[in-house]
What we know:
14-stranded antiparallel beta sheet, 4 helices, mainly beta
Amino acid sequence: MFTILPMIVFLVKVGLSTEGQKALRWESDQKYASDSKQTLSDTSIHLEKEIPLEPPKMEIKLRSPEDKKFKRAVSNQAFGAGERFEFSVGYGVIKAGTAVMEIPEIVKQDGSKCYHIISTAQSNKFFSVFFKVDDKVESFMDVYGLYSLRYDKHLREGKFKADASMIFDQQNNLAIYHSGKDTFQVPEYVQDVLSAFYFVRTQELKVGKSIFVDNHTDRKTYPLEVKVLRKEKVKVEAGEFECVVVEPILKTPGLFEQKGSLTVWLTDDMVKMPVLMKSKVIIGSISTELVSYKLGEVGKY
């Protein structure tokens, strides 16, 4: 979900790779000899795959430049420029790497002011021997309407490499890849996988209810449902927080399809800061825990 994915996906991939299994078993043996035969080879989480290029199969309908009905304004009391969250990623007590989510600045994208949102994930020295990860995902989110205008990703995971760039023409409901080589019709106010997370943070989260967000990623559009499960207090390295617990569900084959699960703890306040994220696997769980944070300047553009 969201680009919490760069934080969790790489550790899942480590567990699924032969080298990664050896690494996990080696370090687990040092801490828990009785668990030496446990591996992650049967994890139920499906990995996101690069979707091959396909020519668009729909008729693209453009709106006239005078049509301004697409514009909207969304109240945002949750985040602003200067925000930075640092996380530790691990499998049980085993440290695997670090991750950062931040909004370093406000920039302009096609004349619109945008939050420049960046999510990165790196494996640590030990895991890099077996499966090196260096991922970076960026989103440019309109500061007033809180919808995505641009999305870039640069993934380096073992031998796998992927680079993609996409522009959202929100006025004409289009997702445009690689400088116009591929174009797809998308829903109004569609989000990318990273901006979707920040949009959810601005919404009221009621236990027992769900938030629905249209999401476009890797040439596919799908609905993202965020279930609000419960409220509880959690303690992490960054402190102790009252939280609302949510579960994102992607209605498409791939990562975190119904067979896998991701649970996220957000602070139960206006900020809805991510404190803890857990993804269940066959043996134990993968966790992303908040280590330090700096809040942004809300409302300053």
